[in-house]
Write a structure and sequence with these properties.
CATH architecture of the largest domain in chain B: Orthogonal Bundle
Shape of chain B: globular
Number of strands of chain B: 16
Helix content of chain B: 40-55%
Radius of gyration of chain A: 19 Å
Structural class of chain A: mainly alpha
Helix content of chain A: over 70%
Radius of gyration of chain B: 22 Å
CATH class of the largest domain in chain B: Mainly Alpha
Strand content of chain A: under 5%
Number of domains of chain B: 2
Number of strands of chain A: 0
Number of helices of chain A: 11
CATH topology of the largest domain in chain B: Cytochrome-c3 Hydrogenase, chain B
Distance between the termini of chain B: 34 Å
Order of helices and strands of chain A: HHHHHHHHHHH
Structural class of chain B: alpha+beta
Distance between the termini of chain A: 42 Å
Largest sheet of chain B: 5 strands, mixed
Number of domains of chain A: 1
Number of helices of chain B: 16
CATH superfamily of the largest domain in chain B: Cytochrome-c3 Hydrogenase, chain B
Shape of chain A: globular
Oligomer: heterodimer
Chain lengths: 301, 499
């Protein structure tokens, strides 16, 4: 329950912080941290316009997308405190819930029949697919490490005994940050600010969405960031008491938002053809973690 | 003689241009092009003369200040051999002649509509039935972009044929911005009206086009352009170059999503365009250049202000440039993206900055200097890779070069001295050509006058006219997601092409 409330709370201003950091680094003042959320609220108060070439899939997709994401959020733990849904192997369901939502968005984009949206859908499918092994190897390694296969069990059993396990925590944070960037189609994989349809990934898929639906999709990005931030925080808070773990989570989330903002400000977007290579780095780092775990468990000898 | 050799801004009687048969005309021009690689067609056009079409072709040499003029007369219903088959330099010009007068070419590769001019010969040619290249394939797909774009840019339709993410072919359909400027030039008879028309040929090259017009007009009425006029025009041309090049660097950074570069270069452009506001009351420099005078003379106070602006501009410019040129992610986006080889550039007849990025030393400031460019010993910046990186580098170095030229000129600001054009009349039965290197490249204005000193023809050519084809070539085999940055690195004008 704590984690759910925290995720919702952070989702209100996470993107606002990212935007603010981007503004500050380019020498501007920037909008209030709540502005992106106000924009979404404004969209929620509007109706949606549907293209006549689309079918029911297009109308169904945004709701399915946000619903699958919400169920996934229910599984996110707060350190060793379980999320509302928790069972053995829940991280697998977590990953596929997200994939299901994405699948709906992809077929909805194809449903519009626009050549841009088709291109965006193909890119999105490719990059999410490439990011998937990283997540599973990462979570699988920790499951092996702790002997548990639920989020709660993993974070409960995580014990920072040696320098080595700190290193694993650091690497895991890196992998999760980049996965969050890829999943949310942010820099350096995709440029969310561009107006050029040809270079977009996520943005081009939702060109035909408007009003309430668009609001849902945009809020999903906020929620996803907060959700990944919460998982990252769980790596560090373990079974600390609530009065310490809640502020620590907020600090880690802020740190995450600042890192995202800085990454987006000081690099250029990758060439589309270089993205797969970049995403494969995640898998190799995840494999490093896997080997680290094997070493710690002494199974390497 | 089968051709006439003239200089930039030189007025010649029409009767001095040798009139030869079409076959000989073709042979002569192709031979002129073959003799030296450093030649290209600057303008080739026709106009009606007693029921027939008179063709005039101008070929410029990039090295020795000469422009070769040839002329032929052909009946309107003639079927001719095209120049394009042996030399692609003439492709667009022949399409234009075909569109306007219905002249048929036997072996032109594809006489597509160019800009849908109002008085085109075949009015059944419409935007809706533009003959695009079609591919029958299950593997390839078509992506159409525009004519209405997501950003605030002009209308133009781009159709890509792609193999997955890779561009196989790009076809650019223009003509949406056609306003009939050349015809308006003949209809509006006052010099002021014509100057304002020239200012509005392309909003980003106001100084370039207006200077080309003013230089041409002063030659046409036989007025001697004074030193102070040349001085102001040269300063304005170089300032325009700095302003637009800086803005382009910002836009290139925007397209590769490098936020810092985008905002810093964007900010740096502002003081330069604001200086135009201070000088002449308009940030685009409209209302500044006039025939025979400067509406707002350049004073030594303005000169001091400009030096202050440069002193503030340079450190910031150098700093962000150092950053951008050392940022691996930015370099990896720019290098080997949108390559235009020297051979391709020469074949298409690319001009200006894009030509220099592909290794051609083609710069009117050196080859056909007008205004004060005789005095500046201009050495064009030439790069050899022809990719986005080279075009960004050209901009970077030309900005520095322009600043140093302006600083050099500012050491000696001449007193304002207008030309009294009152009572001067246009010389009858003459031809004149005016070349100016705008920031984008070679601007060419030509005029032909009639018996009574009236304008028979005013022909405008913006560098975009040549360079759109270069863009279509450069993006081949690139990723479709790199098209925007390729496009921005050329930064071509829609209205300059469509007129």
């Amino acid at each position: 329950m704590v984690s759910l409330l925290l995720v919702f709370f952070v989702s209100l201003f996470f993107m606002g912080v990212v935007t603010r950091i981007r503004s500050l680094t380019s020498g501007r003042k920037g909008p209030s941290v709540m502005q992106p959320m106000w924009d979404i609220v404004r969209l929620w108060r509007k109706g949606s316009v549907y293209s006549t070439t689309t079918s029911f899939i297009f109308q169904l997709a945004p709701i399915t997308y946000i619903a699958s994401l919400l169920v996934a959020v229910l599984m996110v733990p707060h350190g060793s405190r379980a999320g509302l849904i928790s069972f053995e192997g829940d991280f697998i369901m977590f990953a596929y819930l997200l994939a299901f939502g994405k699948f709906m968005m992809i077929i909805a984009a194809l449903d519009t029949g626009s050549s841009f949206e088709g291109m965006g859908a193909s890119r999105e499918a490719l990059f999410s697919m490439l990011a998937e092994p990283a997540f599973f190897i990462l979570m699988g390694s920790f499951a092996l490490f702790t002997g548990n296969s639920s989020f709660q069990g993993i974070f409960n059993g995580l014990y920072y005994g040696s320098h080595f396990s700190y290193m694993l925590g650091g690497l895991a944070t890196f992998v999760l940050i980049i996965i969050a960037m890829v999943e949310n189609s942010r820099m350096p994989v995709d440029d969310p600010k561009t107006h050029l349809e040809l270079t977009m990934i996520h943005e081009v898929m939702i060109l035909d969405n408007s009003g309430f639906d668009l609001g849902l999709i945009m809020y999903a990005t906020h929620l996803k960031f907060a959700m990944y931030g919460s998982i990252i925080a769980s790596f560090f808070i373990g079974s600390l008491p609530l009065w310490l773990s809640i502020p620590l989570t907020l600090v880690i989330q802020m740190f995450f938002a600042i890192v995202v903002g800085i990454m987006e400000s000081f690099t250029a977007r990758f060439r589309m053809g270089h993205n797969p290579q970049f995403i494969f780095i995640l898998t190799s780092v995840a494999i490093l973690i896997f080997f680290g775990v094997l070493m710690l468990l002494g199974r390497f000898m | 003689m089968d051709y006439l050799t003239i200089r930039n801004n030189q007025v010649v009687p029409l009767s001095d241009i040798p009139l030869i048969s079409y076959d000989f005309f073709k042979e002569t021009n192709l031979r002129l092009m073959e003799e030296s690689e450093a030649r290209h067609c600057v303008n080739y056009f026709g106009y009606r003369e007693s029921g027939q079409i008179r063709l005039i072709c101008c070929i410029a040499d990039d090295t020795d200040h000469s422009i070769f003029i040839t002329s032929a007369i052909t009946p309107a219903d003639a079927v001719l051999d095209s120049f394009t088959r042996p030399n692609a330099n003439f492709e667009r010009f022949e399409r234009e002649i075909h569109e306007n007068f219905g002249v048929e070419y036997r072996d032109h590769p594809w006489l597509k509509p160019l800009r849908y001019s109002y008085d085109r010969f075949d009015s059944s040619q419409k935007m809706e039935n533009y003959p695009f290249v079609k591919v029958e394939s299950d593997e390839l797909h078509e992506v159409g972009v525009g004519p209405i774009h997501a950003g605030i840019i002009e209308p133009g339709h781009f159709r890509f044929i792609c193999n997955g993410e890779q561009i196989m072919h790009l076809e650019i359909q223009l003509g949406y911005q056609h306003r009939g400027i050349e015809r308006l030039f003949l209809q509006k008879s006052r010099v002021e009206e014509r100057t304002i028309l020239a200012e509005n040929i392309a909003g980003d090259t106001v100084v370039g086009h207006t200077t080309a017009f003013a230089n041409l007009w002063e030659s046409l009425i036989g007025a001697e352009t004074t030193n102070s006029l040349n001085f102001s025009r040269t300063i304005a041309l170089e300032l325009e170059r700095i302003a637009i090049h800086t803005g382009d660097l910002a836009a290139i950074c925007g397209d590769i999503a490098y936020q810092l570069g985008n905002s810093v270069y964007g900010r740096l452009r502002t003081p330069i365009v604001n200086f135009f506001q201070e000088w002449g009351g308009n940030r685009l420099a409209k209302g500044l250049v006039r025939v025979g005078r400067m509406n707002y003379p350049f004073t030594s106070e303005l000169g001091d202000r400009l030096l202050d602006i440069f002193n503030a501009y340079e450190p910031d410019f150098n700093e962000i440039t150092r950053k951008l040129w050392r940022l691996p992610s930015a370099l990896s986006r720019m290098e080997r993206t949108g390559e235009l080889t020297t051979g391709e550039a020469r074949e298409i007849g690319v001009v200006g900055m894009a030509a220099r990025a592909s290794g051609l030393e083609r710069d009117v400031r050196k080859s056909h200097p007008g205004n004060l460019y005789h005095e500046i010993s201009h050495q064009p910046v030439v790069k050899h890779h022809g990719d986005v990186y080279s075009r960004a580098q050209i901009r970077k170095e030309e900005i520095k070069q322009s600043i140093s030229y302006i600083k050099e000129l500012l050491q000696d600001i001449p007193d304002n001295n207008d030309v009294n054009t009152e009572g001067m009349i246009i010389q009858p039965n003459v031809f004149v050509i005016s070349l100016v290197e705008g920031w984008r490249g070679e601007i060419c204005h030509c005029a032909v006058t009639g018996k009574k000193g009236d304008l028979l023809l005013y022909k405008i050519k913006d560098p975009s006219f040549h360079n759109w084809m270069a863009l279509a070539q450069a993006v081949r085999n690139n990723e479709i997601s790199d098209f925007p940055v390729c496009n921005k690195s050329f930064n071509l004008s829609y209205c300059g092409h469509d007129l």
